[in-house]
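Example for tutorial group B:
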């Protein structure tokens, strides 16, 4: 089981803006989330890799929102942030190989790249050169040729030593890397 991640949503597009790994949860909340995820998986009685998305409400209750029977955007940071990524784990399951190490290598943040408001058409990535120079930053473009406002076009994984460092890098990237059109 991968460590829980914390997702922050963009209110304009109602999709994940960024996620942090590890989530800021108490040890009790982490244990409860892992127990719930295990119960969900046992009930599904299916092999494979699953994402179990949950909400933590204001009263501290953990509620299941959805499950996804595949690699999921809530685990994209695992590509660089964990010893075995969700994609490697899926390959291991499909080939009946031993499961990999799901531990985090270091704190990470995944930032979704979405089309900027007022831009539709052939995609252009403004500011990508500056972001590519950053240490501990990995850009993943999805190969889509057309952009429109709010369309997911890729993501950026950021590795750092602390939540503050991750959030500072993410803020710079959000201000610098823009998905626009030609």
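The residue assignment follows.
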């Amino acid at each position: 089981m991968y460590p829980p991640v914390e997702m922050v949503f963009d209110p304009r597009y109602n999709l994940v803006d960024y996620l942090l790994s590890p989530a800021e949860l108490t040890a009790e909340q982490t244990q409860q989330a892992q127990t719930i995820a295990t119960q969900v998986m046992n009930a599904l009685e299916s092999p494979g890799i699953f994402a179990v998305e949950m909400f933590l409400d204001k009263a501290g209750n953990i509620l299941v929102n959805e499950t996804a029977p595949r690699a999921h955007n809530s685990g994209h940071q695992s590509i660089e942030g964990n010893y075995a990524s969700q994609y490697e784990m899926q390959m291991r399951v499909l080939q009946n190989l031993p499961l990999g190490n799901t531990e985090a290598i270091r704190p990470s943040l995944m930032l979704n790249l979405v089309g900027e408001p007022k831009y539709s058409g052939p995609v252009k990535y403004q500011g990508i050169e500056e972001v590519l120079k950053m240490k501990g930053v990995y850009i993943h473009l999805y190969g889509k040729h057309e952009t429109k406002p709010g369309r997911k076009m890729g993501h950026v994984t950021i590795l750092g030593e602390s939540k503050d460092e991750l959030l500072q890098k993410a803020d710079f990237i959000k201000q610098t890397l823009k998905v626009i059109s030609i």
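The longest helix spans residues 27-44. Compare this with the pattern of hydrophobic and polar residues in the output above.
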